[in-house]
Amino acid sequence: MEILKNTVTKVLPPREISCFKAYDLRGILDETIDEDIAYRVGRSFVDVLNVNSVVVGYDARASSQDLAAAVIRGIRDAGAAVIDIKLAGTEEVYSATSHFGAGGGIEITASHNPINYNGMKIVAEGSRPVDPDAELAEVHKVAEAGRFKVQGHLGGYRDAHIEARSAYVKKVLSFIDVDSLRPLKLVVNCGNGAAAAAYTAIKQELENLAAPLEFVDQFLEPDASFPNGIPNPLLVENQPVTREKVLASQADIGVTFDGDFDRCFFFDETGQFIPGEYIVGLLADIFLDKEPAAAIVHDPRVVLNTRDVIAAKGGQAVQSKTGHAFVKQVMRKHEAVYGGEMSAHHYFRDFSYCDSGMIPWLLICELMGRTGKPLSTLLAERMQKFPSSGEHNFKISEPAKAISAVVDAYKKDALIEDRSDGVSLEFNSWRFNLRSSNTEPVVRFNIESRNDTQLVNEKFQEISAILNQFAS
Predict the structure, then answer these.
(1) Is 353 helix (H, G, I), strand (E, B) or coil?
(2) Do strands 338-340 and 295-298 pair parallel, antiparallel, or not at all (unpaired)?
(3) Are 148 and 334 in contact (CB under 8 A)?
(4) What pairing do the DSSP bridges indicate for beta strands 53-58 and 253-257?
């Protein structure tokens, strides 16, 4: 990798930067995030973590390539080499960071946020998350100050997108036995986001391996205008188009992604959207068949089904705070084989403890092949046994007061009160979790039960009534 000499160090004026969030960066274009901020982040990342090379990738948004170019300038001005993988998903940055032995990785992405947003997801060496309270906070501080270490050389540049994608495809396919696949038809909705190139490469390699899968592509091409809506499959209004394609195609399964495809979502052969918590349980079951007694990490929002699956297989259930940095940290501590969040983030020990949107659908196709069962059958008993409300957001001016009001109304009858992430109260046959958003005046509410959908509905109405008293 060529190192160029004779760059001149820049000292920038101080600037307040508000796009740093709990464990990544997100902001409104030309208001809270722009090319100057991107340059500062690239430069301060190298200075703070003292790295020699950084992988850079970007999603399909119109502003992402320019922001990536600014990050690259900052990295090179700081004396570190850039490994550019160009248009790629977040998990491809994770994969490339480990594959190339880079000191870190930065993906320019706003994932599922509105079209006027952009941001960055950052990892350190080995694809580990940067420490939010130490490393990321220091990057923020240095970026704002605009005073950077003096360097006498310009860092190198390498276009590595072909090698990176090839290594990535090989890695994700290593999670399955292609010979276990049976004929299946899949609808795959890329949402006009960044998923198309990686998905197409995986599909091509499966074809080379004679996998008996048939694919029906939907919204394949990246399009920064998002003509079919921002790729956020959790939005109810975005789900019918995939459901209808599954039914019209008589497909066995539907798969759809968010903008940077580190999350994937599923529809069964009846067109039913599968809530993320049941996919967590299903993947936990798959890995415990492979590694009995292994540790499985889950978030605290909806847990009854996942705990039950893990207990039945003799695994170790470990709870983490919500958020990728926390889940990855807990997984590494316990050497967990898999971790899952109901928001459709799925993490894998053998993928550098990182989340992937491609590995889950491959695993589920393998399971359907081994069992000969449709997805609806694999999940029906679990969904009936542990009904849940799904996550509901309440816009509330004073979230802490609203949560306290709910807790005060119910805690006297609770068997367990857990405040490790928001507040969870657990009773004999049901439980709920309330969390405040880190970024907006919103309370997120989940409720679940054992074998009692009516109870879920009743308690949901009761608690919603209390929360609505504080609505903004």
Answers:
(1) coil
(2) parallel
(3) no
(4) unpaired
CATH homologous superfamily of 392-468: Alpha-D-phosphohexomutase, C-terminal domain (3.30.310.50)
Does the pLDDT value for residue 1 go beyond 60? Answer: no
The whole-angstrom separation of Cα 445 and Cα 431 is 11
Report whether 210 contacts 154 (CB < 8 A): no
Mean pLDDT (the chain, rounded):
95
Candidates 3.40.120.10, 3.40.50.720, 3.40.50.300, 3.40.50.1820; CATH matching 4-164 = 3.40.120.10
Report H helices in 17-79. 35-49, 64-77
Domain ranges in the chain are 4-164, 392-468
With both helix axes pointing from N to C terminus, report the angle between 161-173 and 359-371 in degrees, rounded to the nearest 10: 30
- Please determine, for residue 435, whether its predicted confidence score (pLDDT) is greater than 60: yes
Concatenating the DSSP letter of every residue in 418-450 gives E-SSSEEEE-SSEEEEEEE-SSSSEEEEEEEES
> Active-site residue numbers?
111
Instruction: Give residues with Cβ within 8 angstroms of 272, minimum separation 6.
Output: 243, 376
Rounded Cα gap, residues 104 and 130, in angstroms? 9
**Phi, psi for residue 183 in degrees, rounded to 5:** -60, 125
List pLDDT tens digits, range 102-119.
999 999 999 999 999 999
Residue for token digits 């195609």?
Answer: 249
Q: What is the pLDDT of residue 5?
A: 41
